Amino acid sequence: MSRTALGLSYDGRPWQGWQTQPHKQTVQDQLERALNLFLGHATPTICAGRTDTGVHALEQVVHIDSQVERPPNAWVRGLNSYLHESIRVLWAVSVSDTFHARFSAVSRTYRYVVLNDAVYHPLWVGRAGWFFRPLDVERMLEARVDLIGQHDFSSFRSSQCQAPNPVRTIQSIDIERQGALVVITFTANAFLHHMVRNIVGSLLQIGCAKQPVAFMAETLAARNRIYAAPTFAPDGLYFERVNYLEQLLQRPTVSFERPFDFLI
Questions:
Q1: Whole-structure pTM value
Q2: Which of 133, 46, 96 is nearest to 247 (CA)?
Q3: Which CATH class is domain 2-104?
Q4: How confident is the model over 210-261, as pLDDT tens digits?
Q5: What architecture does CATH give domain 107-239?
Q6: How far apart are the C-alpha atoms of 8 and 87, rounded to whole Å?
Q7: Is 117 one of the annotated active-site residues of the chain?
Q8: Residues 223 and 155 sit within 8 Å (Cβ to Cβ)
């Protein structure tokens, strides 16, 4: 058996998230179907991070084990020929059996794109969350400081979250305005279910002055989901990158240096 890592990008709009479901309308189901056709046998997949319905991925990482060996370009061309146009394999590399797409990850990066305008432009529907009230990015930047570092993020986890431990370490949160877009970038060792969308919802309440800047610290300290803002829409959430030790995964350079740039 040999292990192969795949870099995947997908538009989350047609799919009911990553994880396999009986109705087969998930990204994992589509990838495993393509692998079955390409390799001639069923092949389970392990991903770096499961995404919800409507959430996109710029570079999801998946590993598989198979007795069939193919050159990297054959993996890419072969699998893409069987995949829906909204899902594409960007690269494939052979890795050692010590590599694990999920457990070998050092950190993960998500971006949330908010269209901050009076009108929800039709070209951004499903690709950006919409918030019509004017946002003060400086207030949001001030509030995000309280989230940096290792904390109990119980106030920002879904009630359905299955993680046994609510403690996570956020390494950075960057917020910038680009015209009508407000882009929020999170990097952490790992995330809880709905954690990013719940934090975004609270940041937006602070940005539009419905809540004070201190609201973020108070909500974090409460360790109770009822105190945070409602979960924001999945539309603008992008699973951007997974980072590994270089000796475990040397991923190829994709055709665009920063995958997110093509969206803006």
A1: 0.93
A2: 96
A3: alpha beta
A4: 999 999 999 999 999 999 999 999 999 999 999 999 889 988 876 555 545 5
A5: 2-Layer Sandwich (3.30)
A6: 7
A7: no
A8: yes
